[in-house]
Amino acid sequence: MNRAVILIGSYIAVQMLSDIGSLKIVLIAGFSMDAGTLVYPMTFTLRDLVHKSLGISAARAMILLAAVINLVMAAFFGVVGQLPPDPSVGDQSAFAALLAPVWRIVLASIAAEVVSELLDTQVYHRWKERMGHRAQWARVAVSNGISVPVDTLLFAFLAFGGVYELTVVWAIVTSNIILKLLVTAASVPLIYAVPERTS
Fold it and tell me: What is the 3-state secondary structure of the chain?
């Protein structure tokens, strides 16, 4: 039970951090990417670990719960950003400038997360049904290999299509896919860190 709490809490925390980070576009090694990409790829492996140890229903419920929490978080930041500041504290305009939601990015991020993570769940489940306990590493590689491009394309074009030049959007897509697949490759062995749910 403690392991399950840690996995689900970690998944939701990383989802929240990535949604906040996605508000900033950074340049790393010559590649444009939203800063949420620096942590978001971990959610795919965490989702796989939850699926393996708690089952498909728990994985789906966690994905939807994370989406609701991220939506509530964005709305909360929006409300707080509009509340009048206490003038005796000094200038607090940085809060709204930094954390006030950009709804196009928030909704694009949540939509991409839900679609890609549910797709990842389904592919993982089908692979598990077909292969059983064999080649567990392949569950992660195949499910993430399909869901990562879907997630990236959905997010980049919903969030930035028509806002930035097409070359910038494609640069974001390319860098995101490369980074996410590298994280997937590095995290594949973690699938062996949790026991398989038997019931």
Answer: CHHHHHHHHHHHHHHHHHHHHCCCEEEECCEEEEHHHHCCCHHHHHHHHHHHHHCHHHHHHHHHHHHHHHHHHHHHHHHHHHCCCCCCCCCCHHHHHHHCCCHHHHHHHHHHHHHHHHHHHHHHHHHHHHHCCCCHHHHHHHHHHHHHHHHHHHHHHHHHECCECHHHHHHHHHHHHHHHHHHHHHHHHHHHHCCCCCC
For residue 102 the two structure tokens come to 């950009």
pLDDT digit string (tens) for 155-171?
Answer: 999 988 888 889 888 98
The pTM (predicted TM-score) of the whole model is 0.86
Cα angle: 186, vertex 188, 12; to 5 degrees: 90
Domains contained in the chain, CATH given:
2-193 (1.10.1760)
Q: How far is CA 149 from CA 91, 114, 136, 153, 172, in A?
A: 42, 14, 21, 6, 12
